[in-house]
Amino acid sequence: MQHISTKFDLCYRALCSRDPRFDGRFFIGVTTTGVYCRPICPARTASAAHVRFFPCAAAAEAAGFRGCRRCHPEASPGSPDWNMRADLVARALRLIADGMVDTEGVAGLASYLSVSERHLHRELVAEVGVGPLALARTRRAQTARLLIDQTNLSLTTIAFAAGFASIRQFNETMQAAFGCAPSAFRRDRPSEHGGEGKLTLRLHYRPPFDAASLLAYLKQRALPGVEDVSDGCYRRTVVLPHSCGIIELEPLKKTNVVLLRIQLDTLSDLNMLVQRCRYLFDLDAIPTAIAEVLGADSLLAPLVTAHPGLRLPGAINGFELAVRAIIGQQVSVAGARTLASRIVTACGVPLEQPHGALTHFFPTPQALVQADLQGLGLTQSRVTALQALAHAVLEEGLVLDRNADRERTITQLQKIPGIGPWTVAYIAMRALGDPDAFPLTDLGLKHAFEQQGMLASAKSMEKYSEAWRPWRAYAAHYLWVSLSEGMHP
Known about the structure:
Its EC number is 3.2.2.21. One of its GO terms (biological process) is base-excision repair, AP site formation. This protein is α+β, with helices and mostly antiparallel strands. It has 4 domains: about 5-80, DNA Methylphosphotriester Repair Domain; about 85-185, Arc Repressor Mutant, subunit A (Orthogonal Bundle); about 200-305, DNA-3-methyladenine glycosylase AlkA, N-terminal domain (TATA-Binding Protein, 2-Layer Sandwich), CATH 3.30.310.20; about 320-440, Endonuclease III, domain 1 (Orthogonal Bundle), CATH 1.10.340.30. About 45% of the residues lie in helices and about 10% in strands. The protein has 21 helices and 11 strands. It has helices at about 10-15, 55-60, 90-100, 100-110, 115-130, 130-150, 155-160, 165-180, 210-220, 270-280, 285-295, 300-305, 320-325, 335-345, 365-370, 380-395, 405-415, 420-430, 445-450, 460-465, 470-480, and strands spanning about 25-30, 35, 50-55, 65, 200-205, 225-230, 235-240, 245-250, 255-265, 350-355, 360. The strands form 3 sheets. Strands 5-9-8-7-6 form a 5-stranded antiparallel sheet. A 4-stranded mixed sheet has the order 3-1-2-4. Helix 6 packs across helix 8 and helix 17 runs antiparallel to helix 18 (about 420-430). It is globular and about 65 Å long. The two termini are about 35 Å apart.
């Protein structure tokens, strides 16, 4: 894949127009100032002879540039070029963003990806210009800068929450990345939502953003006790590897920002949580690129026009999403919510103090594999499938998030009794983040095709959908939103 950052003329035009569609897709190093910026930077545009383009912030820093203090490169949306891909480099970048290098080192990252450290370094340098250590270092610095700017957490807390191993490393890295000590950023009024373990962050995205459709979709499927959607805000409980707590995501009107409010018992998993929240609301998508493909189709064009910036809902917890997909096979949305709620009540851990409608954490694979699920209204085949899923996660290395090897995960899912093609495609779409996953046997899609007077056989739908690649998952979501009632979990 040729990166947009290698196309100098296109990048320079985007820079001159401050086009928000390109925000986060490349960064600009200005040789006369030694600063690197986002394409939307309000500073006066440098002449073409004095700019260099980079595919990621880490590459700009490796070339000797420091982050701009006006446009805040650390706050830009993530690059969508990797969302479509599930190859080695794309998976490595997602894992680095999650903080794996901080906890497991480059050796641990390479081992997880089943490659040598040398091969991993070579592939990353070829694609993005720098190796895993430089990428991890930049990610730590950017996370720290966000926390300094947007919270009143102590600098020591920020250093370790961002993944630094020591205060000395924190200070040296921030000086190199931004040209000043961390304390120099503490001039602005601190966030009113500060406090150790409780904070508010601003998540940026590329417009347009159809927040209303996204929240309506999540509200219809909100799992009682675990999720709640009200007053334009999505809330839920979360269980992470080293922490648990509650999050709230609230799109702000007339801005390109979603507020993320976090209340965790520790900040050990902060980077992972922020990434999963971005995935849930699909904040790294490029709506204009998706609309260009899908809007060219006569079936989808009216839907694309009616819902500019429609996002594909992801998942905070891939195991939870897979459980709910299995429960939702061939039942209504309301029926699936009822059954899933019974599992939460029977197997989930209650909050010490309910937080409004939020009362439980979703059951872990360990809890589900040991649970007696009889008497909850589930068929025996579903009970078998759910416990086989939990066993596969615990014993067979089944990965149900965007860091997965998609082909391997799909193969493993297909081997579990009671999981059919529809369920696999739905899990791939939402948990694995495959933008081209397409559940051909979905009843909602069939009804949408029939409403347009089109053949709705799996064969004809598959043939017609070829023109929608690589965005068939978005096409499916557009068709679902077009229906008056949901027919899927």
